[in-house]
Design goal:
Blueprint (H helix, E strand, L loop, with lengths): L2 H12 L10 H16 L4 H8 L3 H9 L6 H16 L15 H17 L4 H14 L3 H20 L2
Helix pairs in contact: 2-3, 2-4, 2-5, 3-4, 6-7
Length: about 160
């Protein structure tokens, strides 16, 4: 599902064109839902804004103010996310239930640890050492869970910006 199909899904769910230029509350809330869903599924602020005729700063505002919408709109958000999670066309969460090879990440952490130890410490390297120190005390299950639920989604989010 591409972003225009996502907009179409929300248009049908709300029963109106969410990109209509109006400040009516229901339209603003619908655009907030669209912005939040779009961002959750990896679209850039510009991608989202181009579909609903808003600039990237408006999209950022919609996402930050998402919590102020009515419960009915949060239900719409939940329904749309559920539909998208069940779709293989657009689902950043679909691989989280699959087993991942934690050893790849452990090897990379060890490699980075070696690089950090070889160089003079800077603020960035000091932060890396703190991360390695914390992560090295975790069980393999805890580390695996952290990688699956935090590192991989964060890495995907950063690569989409």
């Amino acid at each position: 599902m591409d972003i225009t199909q996502l907009k179409g899904l929300l248009d049908r769910t709300y029963g109106f064109d969410i990109s209509k230029k109006t400040r009516a509350r229901e339209y603003v809330y619908a655009r907030r839902v669209f912005s939040k869903v779009g961002r959750d599924f990896g679209y850039t602020f510009e991608d989202i804004g181009s579909i609903i005729n808003c600039d990237h700063s408006t999209i950022i505002h919609h996402i930050k103010s998402f919590e102020t919408i009515h419960a009915i709109d949060k239900e719409v958000y939940g329904k749309v996310v559920k539909i998208l999670k069940s779709s293989d066309m657009l689902n950043p969460y679909k691989n989280l239930n699959q087993a991942i090879d934690v050893s790849v990440y452990l090897d990379r952490i060890s490699e980075l640890e070696g690089l950090v130890m070889e160089k003079d410490f800077t603020v960035e390297q000091d932060d890396m050492c703190k991360l390695i120190e914390i992560a090295s005390s975790w069980s393999e299950d805890t580390l695996s869970h952290f990688i699956e639920t935090r590192v991989i989604p964060f890495d995907k989010m950063n690569s989409n910006q």
